Amino acid sequence: MSLPKLPVRMPLDWPKERIVVTGGAGFLGSFVVEALRTRGAREIFIPRSKDYDLVKMDAVRSLYREARPTLVLHLAARVGGIGANRDNPGRFFYENLMMGVQLIEVAREVGLKKFVALGTICAYPKHCPVPFREEDIWNGYPEETNAPYGLAKKMLLVQSQAYRQQYGLNSTVLFPVNLYGPRDNFDPHSSHVIPALIRKCIEARERGERRVVVWGTGEASREFLHVRDAAEGILAAAERYESSEPVNLGAGFEIKIRDLVPMIARLCRFEGEVTWDKTKPDGQPRRMLDTSRALREFGWKAQIGFEEGLSETIDWYERNRGGIR
Predict the structure, then answer these.
(1) Is 149 a catalytic residue?
(2) Average pLDDT of the residues of the chain
(3) With the CA atoms of 97, 26, 44 and 31 taken in that order, what torsion angle do they form, in degrees rounded to the nearest 10?
(4) Residue by residue, what is the 3-state secondary structure of the chain?
(5) Residue tagged active-site, from 52, 124, 149, 180
(6) Residues 93, 153: contact at Cβ < 8 Å?
(7) Residue whose C-alpha is closest to residue 226's, from 234, 214, 218
(8) Beta-carbon neighbour count of residue 76 at 10 Å?
(9) For residue 325, what pLDDT band results from cuts at 50, 70 and 90?
(10) Is the pTM of this model over 0.85?
(11) Residues 6+ positions from 144 with CB-CB distance below 8 Å
(12) Which residue did the predictor score with more confidence, 239 or 1?
């Protein structure tokens, strides 16, 4: 049986595109919108959850009908750290799955020019060889604490590949490592490790406390990508990547949490000690991505040094925390 003829791909012309950025008012989305504007994009539609509940198909159809996009960048996600994932596995699975699946289905129906979705490093197997290569993404079950979220995002990869094969939908799913940077979520109940540690160290310093307590053993490793680098990677893929094969977005290094904590404490000017709560989980043992495909396929590589990015993030938090709960 012959496959359907794929449509002719048209290059993006940023000033002429009508772009929907789901999650465009959020942490990553705000940097993607800024990067779009520097490229000359004029028509950027940012759906707000109070107006478009993208978990519901009626709202997804309304979004496409009213925005009439040529490009959709799907960045919206129900996400959090280890604690939030443990408390909300069903919610994280259902809402992330339904948002992505329905946005891609309607993209097919309307003949969208291009769809780019963000996956997650949580989609990789718990015991994946390091560095994580895209070819290994199906070789095991994800780490248990965030598996529902990771699997929901990984289904978008299946859908992207199936829809390209059957319908010729030009779609791509990118898999970033943990992001950090200015405007991150610093809520102690739902934040990821870097903003949580920054807030903890600064508050301890100001209260004159002599120690901070950190979850786990400190032996787990992570890789962190500055949010501005991530935004540039997403738009590079939108401009130049014409495939539904997965692509990693990362910074190309790993650091143990045991080494990360004193670095953040030093930059936050906290001089007390760190106590490890070993009754709490470490999460996935190691995380670091092979990013050679992104460089090879669309010429993207992270540019911002880690300590430089941490200093910028800490400075932003200290200047803006009056408005953060």
Answers:
(1) yes
(2) 93
(3) -120
(4) CCCCCCCCCCCCCHHHCEEEEECCCCHHHHHHHHHHHHCCCCEEECCCCCCCCCCCHHHHHHHHHHHCCCEEEECCCCCCCHHHHHHCHHHHHHHHHHHHHHHHHHHHHHCCCEEEEECCHHHCECCCCCCECHHHCCCCCECHHHHHHHHHHHHHHHHHHHHHHHHCCCEEEEEECEEECCCCCCCCCCCCHHHHHHHHHHHHHHHCCCEEEEECCCCCEECEEEHHHHHHHHHHHHHHCCCCCCEEECCCCCEEHHHHHHHHHHHCCCCCEEEEECCCCCCCCCCCECCHHHHHHHCCCCCCCHHHHHHHHHHHHHHHHHHCC
(5) 149
(6) no
(7) 234
(8) 25
(9) low
(10) yes
(11) 126
(12) 239
Pull the structure tokens for residue 180: 């950090």
Specify the length of the chain in residues: 325
Six-digit token pair at 42?
A: 């004029």
Place of tokens 């604490």: 145
